[in-house]
């Protein structure tokens, strides 16, 4: 398996960060990420590899964990009764989608291979302007597929990883649109009032990104409130979501792992400490 069979390296020579074309791309992406917490690199993955990833998803459909649990924006389903009734942590929305967990991938998975390439990590690190960043230690979540059938919805939330990549593998016929509110929170500022406004339907901060199969999106999932609108039509939406983090040790909390990925592993219990950035999970 080779990087050049997965990524269009003629267009995007990410193995050479000093090339003129990549330097310019990094500059543009960094500007977009600083301003909007999100950037898109069109046709980054070769069509043949998108097809291979689609085949991987379709082969493993039986292994997908589907969940219909309502969640708050911190991907938590537990109600904190001590908070006021209208606190964002106490606002639960219907969620209905699935995950093909990273531990179910075959050894020859192209997505897994891509995720393990240092070239991709270095490129993303340069785009977000932070070094070092790390592959995520969570064995279920690190390079999963997010699955949305017709009627599925993914409500407003933050990711527990700092930097989420999104590669659209199959586009739905209608809707299933990614919406996000750039830089709405940061360490030391949860910004609950602004988050509440978005949950109540205020569209002032909301942006949309229109992804096509093979595009790579990089966004700051931990600081960017985001959602996917309800998938309509007959075709499911499949999205590869490899992710990078600032802490190479941390994994999802047991509660988060159970609610989203359908199981809790010993590592989730062993590493369940308070987060150093102080933000809610
Ligand atoms: Fe997310």
Q: Could you write a compact summary of the structure shown?
A:
The chain has 281 residues and is an alpha+beta fold.
Descriptive keywords:
281 residues; alpha+beta; eight-stranded antiparallel sheet; 7 helices; globular; binds fe (ii) ion
Task: Describe this protein's structure.
The structure is a single chain. This protein has seven helices and 14 strands. By secondary structure, the chain is of the alpha+beta class. The chain has helices at 20-36, 47-59, 110-115, 118-128, 192-199, 254-261, 266-270, and strands spanning 38-41, 65-67, 97-100, 134-135, 143-148, 154-157, 163-170, 174-175, 178-181, 207-209, 216-219, 225-228, 231-232, 237-245. Helix 1 packs across helix 4 (118-128). The structure holds fe (ii) ion. Fe (ii) ion binds at residues 157, 159, 221, 226.
Q: What's the helix and strand layout?
A:
Elements: H1 20-36, E1 38-41, H2 47-59, E2 65-67, E3 97-100, H3 110-115, H4 118-128, E4 134-135, E5 143-148, E6 154-157, E7 163-170, E8 174-175, E9 178-181, H5 192-199, E10 207-209, E11 216-219, E12 225-228, E13 231-232, E14 237-245, H6 254-261, H7 266-270
Antiparallel strand pairs: 1-11, 2-3, 3-5, 4-14, 5-14, 6-12, 7-11, 7-14, 8-13, 9-10, 9-12
The site of fe (ii) ion (FE2) has 4 residues, from loops.
> Which residues sit in consecutive blocks of at least 5 with pLDDT less than 50?
none
The outline comes out as: globular
The H-and-E topology, N to C, reads as: HEHEEHHEEEEEEHEEEEEHH
Question: Total number of β-strand segments?
Answer: 14
The ligands bound in this entry are: fe (ii) ion
Assign a percent range to the helix content: 10-25%
Proportion of beta-strand residues: 15-25%
Label the structural class.
Answer: alpha+beta
Number of helices: 7
**Could you give the distance between the termini?**
36 Å
Characterize the biggest β-sheet. 8 strands, antiparallel
Average pLDDT rating: 95
Q: Any idea what the radius of gyration is?
A: 18 Å
């Amino acid at each position: 398996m080779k990087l050049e069979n997965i990524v269009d390296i003629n267009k995007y020579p990410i193995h050479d960060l000093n090339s003129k074309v990549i330097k310019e791309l990094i500059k543009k992406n960094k500007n977009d990420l600083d301003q909007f917490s999100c950037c898109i690199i069109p046709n980054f993955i070769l069509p043949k590899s998108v097809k291979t990833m689609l085949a991987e998803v379709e082969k493993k459909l039986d292994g997908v964990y589907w969940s219909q649990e309502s969640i708050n924006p911190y991907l938590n389903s537990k109600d904190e009764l001590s908070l006021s009734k209208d606190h964002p942590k106490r606002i639960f929305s219907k969620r209905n989608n699935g995950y093909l967990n990273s531990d179910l991938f075959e050894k020859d998975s192209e997505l897994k291979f891509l995720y393990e390439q240092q070239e991709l990590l270095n490129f993303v690190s340069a785009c977000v302007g932070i070094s070092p960043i790390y592959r995520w230690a969570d064995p279920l979540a690190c390079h999963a597929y997010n699955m949305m059938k017709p009627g599925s919805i993914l409500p407003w939330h933050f990711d527990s990883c700092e930097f989420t990549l999104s590669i659209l593998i199959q586009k739905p016929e209608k809707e299933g649109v990614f919406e996000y509110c750039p830089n709405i929170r940061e360490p030391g500022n949860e910004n609950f009032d602004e988050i509440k406004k978005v949950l109540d339907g205020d569209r002032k901060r909301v942006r949309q990104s229109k992804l096509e199969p093979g595009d790579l999106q990089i966004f700051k999932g931990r600081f960017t409130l985001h959602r996917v609108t309800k998938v309509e039509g007959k075709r499911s939406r499949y999205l590869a979501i490899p992710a990078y983090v600032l802490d190479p040790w941390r994994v999802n909390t047991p509660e988060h792992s159970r609610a989203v990925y359908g199981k809790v592993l010993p590592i989730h219990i062993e590493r369940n400490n308070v987060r150093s950035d102080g933000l809610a999970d």
